[in-house]
User: Fold this.
Amino acid sequence: MNDERAYPQHSATQDKEEQSKRLLDQLAPVSWQIRPITERDVGIDGEAEIRVNNWYTGLFFKYQLKSTDSIEWMHGWFLVLKRYQNY
Assistant:
């Protein structure tokens, strides 16, 4: 087929989403047990359970990944815009 419309198109947004997942895997401490949420859940991409001294604590947090064209890093951390802090 020569008709480009016959196939789904991959977007730059999808690339950014994949990059944000890979960045989380690289930057998250090994003491965080990262668990992506595979079911469709608006606003939640995964959860992490925190371990201390190799013991599971039962403490969890949910996360939502965001993507952007650039990240402002400060002292090894990146800034989250205030409008996303209460999402």
User: Anything to note?
Assistant: The two ends are 44 Å apart (CA to CA). The longest helix spans residues 12-27. The chain has a mean pLDDT of 79.
